[in-house]
Design goal:
- By secondary structure, the chain is α/β, with parallel strands linked by helices.
- It is 43% helix and 22% strand.
- A five-stranded mixed beta barrel has the order 1-2-3-5-4. Strands 7-6-8-9-10 form a five-stranded parallel beta sheet, with helices on both faces.
- The longest helix has 44 residues.
Length: 402
């Protein structure tokens, strides 16, 4: 419940501490999971002091337990071990400190860890964080590579040496962080975010050597997996050896079996590229030469054809035929013209023979009345009527005698 207080009537520190203790005392026992970072067992003391830390966040809490509680698991638990504790929250009023009073401590076994990781893996996969379509392609030749690894570690040496051996001009932006223990997850996440924020970084490699399942647990942490999933820069996971598959391998854009393998997959080999360029150049030269040879053969075959070798040959061969056809045409046309001329002469003679003018030449005359009507019978004229007589050489007027 809320406590009434004012600037004029503030609560003493002791009262506030007492109230907080009262509220905490009403809390029941809870099961808590964490990693032991500090362990203090003083000889002869009946209480053991531990510090329990959340590996995913920068949060720790003090734990106390009676020696007989801790002795049950003393042989299986050391600093760095993950445990599950049944504890009740306690408030130490004089110093205003919260702690947990453990009634039972259970070490977390490898089988249980693997089961939890499998469950987390299915949950993240259902969200689509491992989907292939989310994977980003790596650049062919990265100019600046971000590297997250342990300080002076074999993983760092393997990546740097192999990458520079393959491409001497490659540059690295290295972030040295703890790669196991309680501080590993937040610092690895921070390093990845820092490198992702740099515009010059083309790809990020997260590398670590081999180790036990417990040693590699930071790279299966949900916070790290989500941080990598949200990166805009391609991320390569190079954790442990070939059989090791932390959850980082599934969310990363590329999985490398070892740090050395990561260097080989991220950086091209300059010698191999030179050889590939040479092979492509030779192939291009062969293609061009083959094309030219094929075209030369085709041109030679075309030039060897009679129509190209002697272009006038066809014309010369056709010239006699054309001349023969021309002569034949002339003869045929001449015959037709001669025949037509003969027929025209005969027709003209017939026309002349049958024409009225020829009749008049023989002494005949044609009588026409004044209106031009030809007189054919005597009864067509009257006495004293004037007629026009037409003869071969002209015409004259005649009068009908009664």
């Amino acid at each position: 419940m809320a406590v009434n207080s004012t600037p004029e009537a503030p609560l003493p520190v002791g009262e506030v501490s007492r109230l907080i203790g009262g509220w905490i005392d009403r809390l029941g026992a809870v099961w808590v999971e964490g990693q032991i970072t500090q362990l203090s067992r003083r000889p002869g003391a009946g209480v053991v002091f531990l510090t329990l830390r959340d590996p995913s966040y920068d949060i720790s809490v003090s734990v106390t337990c009676f020696r007989q509680v801790f002795d049950e698991i003393a042989d299986a638990v050391t600093e760095g071990a993950r445990v599950v504790v049944l504890a009740k929250p306690e408030w130490y009023a004089p110093r205003g400190q919260l702690s947990l009073r453990a009634a039972e401590i259970r070490p977390v076994g490898v089988g249980e860890l693997l089961a939890r990781l499998e469950q987390l893996k299915k949950s993240l996969a259902a969200e689509g964080l491992f989907a292939p379509e989310r994977k980003k392609p790596l650049p062919f030749l990265p100019q600046l590579i971000g590297l997250v690894c342990g300080r002076a570690s074999a993983a760092e040496r393997d990546v740097l040496e192999n990458a520079r051996h393959r491409w001497p001009a490659v540059r690295f932006e290295v972030r040295n962080v703890p790669v196991q223990g309680v501080h590993a997850v937040p610092q690895v996440v921070q390093a990845v975010k820092e490198l992702d924020a740099l515009d010059d970084v083309d790809v990020i490699i997260v590398a670590r050597g081999g180790g036990s399942v417990e040693d590699l647990l930071p790279f299966s942490d949900e916070q790290l997996v989500r941080a990598v999933a949200s990166c805009r820069t391609p991320v390569v996971s190079a954790i442990g050896h070939e059989p090791d598959t932390p959850l980082l391998d599934y969310v990363a854009d590329l999985r490398a079996s070892t740090p050395t393998d990561a260097a080989k997959k991220v950086v091209p080999d300059v010698g191999e590229e030179y050889e590939r360029v040479r092979a492509l150049r030779d192939r291009a030269r062969r293609c061009v030469e083959s094309f030219l040879q094929r075209e030369e053969r085709g041109l030679a075959q075309a030039l060897a054809r009679p129509s190209i070798e002697d272009p006038h040959r066809m014309i010369d061969e056709r010239a006699d035929h054309v001349s023969s056809l021309t002569d034949r045409g002339r003869r045929t046309l001449g015959h037709l013209l001669d025949r037509a001329d003969s027929e025209l002469t005969h027709t003209h003679a017939r026309v002349v023979a049958l024409s009225p003018a020829a009749t008049l030449q023989r002494g005949y005359a044609v009588l026409q009345k004044a209106d031009g009507h030809v007189v054919r019978a005597p009864d067509e004229v009257t006495a004293e009527e004037s007629l026009r007589a037409r003869v071969a050489e002209g015409e004259f007027v005649v009068r009908v005698d009664a």
